[in-house]
């Protein structure tokens, strides 16, 4: 069962549970004969409530058949969200068991049903809130960002794969095709999630070289499920490179929101004093830096995670801003570059954007 089907079942689980609980609230408004243990509610609605309850249990069992084996296959330490998800799932099962036992053997405790039903709905809502958003986020990346399979993006993926140090036998042209990218997405949704959740994968963008190294490590790890073949590893690598540009946009939006909040707090705390204007001077290129090599290094390294036009739209205006941009690329995007490459990129950006050279 892939992640999208699992998330769809989770959404149905939430809808059925909500409908059953609110129908229960309505049915408990009818007179109830404690002597005969019968309600004056319409029999058709009573049957509908019972059917919704059993449907809810069936969905829960199907989801547990999918989720419980995954607990044994996780190859990373469970994050707090996964632990909470697991505890809520077991809590739902415990409450369901209590409800069924009361209905079958302890009818004198039926007055507890509204409280148990409400608790069940609360657990279901929290369970859905913890699990579904990350699955539907991947769907958004694959559908709303419609250019993932577009010609321009596939050409970009092909160029990045050529520089990503894949084995020589890797068919670059085939891996950048629409069919191969779609197959890579299926590997991501069916096999990669056997060992960790989608949030771990989609949390931040990575460079193509990082994706190759990450997927290679995952391929050679032992797995209780069907292992990922070498070719499937290449396919999922290509797909992750294809969507990394959209992950970069998402990260940039979150970073902009954080910076805006920090700036507002700084203004409220202590407005910064006005700074005297400074006159920029033309940087002197060290003898070891060739402007042509620096430009090529900037284009090859920085284009791995985003388009160069994004920098040109809002270029840094001071040397300090250039250093801050490079620092963010290293910390947030995990940019891989040697000290020499960083020096060349810094020199090129200062020359082109700050001094307009």
From TrEMBL:
The keyword Iron-sulfur does not apply. PROSITE patterns: CYTC. The keyword Membrane applies. Residues 254-264 have a biased composition (Basic and acidic residues). Residues 254-285 are annotated as: Disordered. Residues 179-346 form the Cytochrome c domain. GO terms for molecular function: electron transfer activity; heme binding; metal ion binding. The chain crosses the membrane at residues 7-28, 48-65, 86-106, 112-130. Keywords: Heme, Iron, Membrane, Metal-binding, Transmembrane, Transmembrane helix. This is Cytochrome c domain-containing protein.
């Amino acid at each position: 069962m892939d992640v999208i089907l699992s998330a769809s079942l989770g959404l149905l689980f939430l809808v059925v549970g909500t409908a059953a609980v609110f129908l229960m609230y309505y049915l408990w408004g009818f007179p109830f004969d404690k002597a005969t243990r019968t309600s004056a509610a319409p029999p058709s609605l009573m049957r509908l409530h019972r059917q919704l309850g059993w449907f809810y249990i069936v969905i829960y069992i199907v989801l547990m058949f999918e989720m419980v084996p995954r607990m044994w296959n996780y190859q990373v330490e469970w994050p707090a969200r996964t632990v909470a998800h697991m505890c809520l799932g077991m809590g739902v099962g415990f409450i369901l068991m209590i409800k069924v036992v009361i209905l079958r053997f302890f009818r004198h405790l039926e007055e507890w049903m509204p409280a148990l039903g409400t608790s069940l709905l609360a657990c279901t809502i929290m369970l859905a809130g913890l699990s579904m958003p990350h699955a539907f986020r991947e769907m958004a990346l694959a559908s709303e960002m419609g250019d993932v399979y577009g010609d321009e993006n596939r050409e970009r993926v092909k160029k990045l794969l050529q520089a990503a140090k894949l084995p020589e036998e890797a068919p670059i042209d085939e891996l950048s095709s629409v069919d191969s990218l779609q197959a890579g997405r299926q590997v991501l949704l069916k096999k990669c999630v056997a060992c960790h959740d989608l949030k771990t994968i989609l949390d931040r963008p990575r460079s193509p070289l990082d994706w190759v190294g990450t997927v290679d490590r995952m391929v050679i790890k032992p797995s209780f499920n069907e292992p990922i073949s070498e070719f499937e590893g290449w396919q999922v690598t290509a797909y992750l490179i294809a969507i990394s540009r959209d992950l970069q946009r998402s990260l940039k939006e979150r970073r902009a929101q954080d910076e805006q909040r920090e700036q507002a707090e700084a203004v409220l705390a202590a407005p910064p004093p006005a700074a005297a204007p400074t006159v920029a001077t033309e940087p002197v290129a060290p003898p070891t830096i060739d402007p042509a090599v620096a430009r090529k290094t900037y284009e090859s390294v920085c284009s791995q995670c985003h388009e160069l036009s994004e920098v040109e739209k809002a270029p840094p205006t001071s040397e300090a801003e250039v250093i801050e941009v490079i620092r963010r690329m290293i910390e947030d995007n995990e940019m891989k570059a040697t000290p020499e490459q960083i020096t060349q990129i810094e020199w090129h950006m200062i020359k082109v954007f700050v001094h307009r050279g």
